[in-house]
Amino acid sequence: MSLRSLSRFNFASIVISILAGLLAYQASTRWSNFSSTIKKDWSSGFRADPMLEAVRSVSTMAAKMVKTPVYFISHGGPMTMYNTDHPVYSKLQEIGKEITTKVKPKAVVVFSAHWQAEGTNKIMINTKEKNDLIYDFYGFPSHCYKATYPNVGSKEIASHVMSALKSNGIEVESTSRGLDHGVWVCFNVLFNPETNPLNVPIVQVSLFSSEDPHQHYALGRAVSALRSENIAIIVSGMAVHNLWDFRRTMGNSTPMPYTSSFDEALKDAVAVAPAEREEKMAALLKRSDARQAHPTFDHLLPIFIGAGAAGEDTGERLWTLKEGSLSWAQYRFGEVEAS
């Protein structure tokens, strides 16, 4: 049974126990007015009956336990937006629809592999209200450099994130920056402006400049409380990302041996019990195939942030596609609340 299911079970048990006591109490005092009293108390906020007030308190506590899921998105390059026949396109649309119709966040805080702060112990936060797009890629068709993605930022949410980081001992600095392609490319598919608009503020936060998995796991922990405030955390990278081999083997989609082995090792490490997850995931970076799967770890580090933000919630691979020297694996930590 999942943690969220267990929470619902405990909540239901507590409510049943309280209602049983309430029935006994009402039977001995005012049974004939029981039904009307319940209606009055629940609709008008009348506090005369302590039993009903206890039920209200339990309901409030249970509501506060609901947390938004955390998503790791393998984002690809700018052509992801245009290759509508590629299998990842429909999968990203499916995930985006889940976020807009079921999670329904009030804001999104996003971490991308394409922004690492300067200085080993500092994090940067974008505080712009209207974000330009950063075309941080080269050698693509000209139309890729004319792509747009309508979006808004939020100084209020950015300030809130800064406070969360500072309270966890993380040095943080605000900056005015656009969204890099690790955000706007996949968001154009996840949240198509015409068919599935996001319509909430987007605040981008940097990675650390280091390749330390524990440092990035702690960064995720520092922002985990945002999930209880209906703020979704999305981390964007790639499950396997070797562009050197990608260019060398262009047109050959047969998975490289390290693509298959590392992709499965990542899935196994993410899916372990949360208490073991950090060490299992950190061990990935010491594997013999790690530097083949990721010559630099920048595209892998976001999933450490996601796992840290997940806390005691479990992680699962939603989908994967091993393609040459890339893996398009998509992950979610935590459950989606039933509508």
From TrEMBL:
<dbReference type="Pfam" id="PF02900">
    <property type="entry name" value="LigB"/>
</dbReference>
<dbReference type="InterPro" id="IPR014436">
    <property type="entry name" value="Extradiol_dOase_DODA"/>
</dbReference>
<dbReference type="InterPro" id="IPR004183">
    <property type="entry name" value="Xdiol_dOase_suB"/>
</dbReference>
<feature type="domain" description="Extradiol ring-cleavage dioxygenase class III enzyme subunit B">
    <location>
        <begin position="70"/>
        <end position="316"/>
    </location>
</feature>
<keyword id="KW-0479">Metal-binding</keyword>
<keyword id="KW-0862">Zinc</keyword>
<protein>
    <recommendedName>
        <fullName>Extradiol ring-cleavage dioxygenase class III enzyme subunit B domain-containing protein</fullName>
    </recommendedName>
</protein>
<comment type="similarity">
    <text>Belongs to the DODA-type extradiol aromatic ring-opening dioxygenase family.</text>
</comment>
<keyword id="KW-0560">Oxidoreductase</keyword>
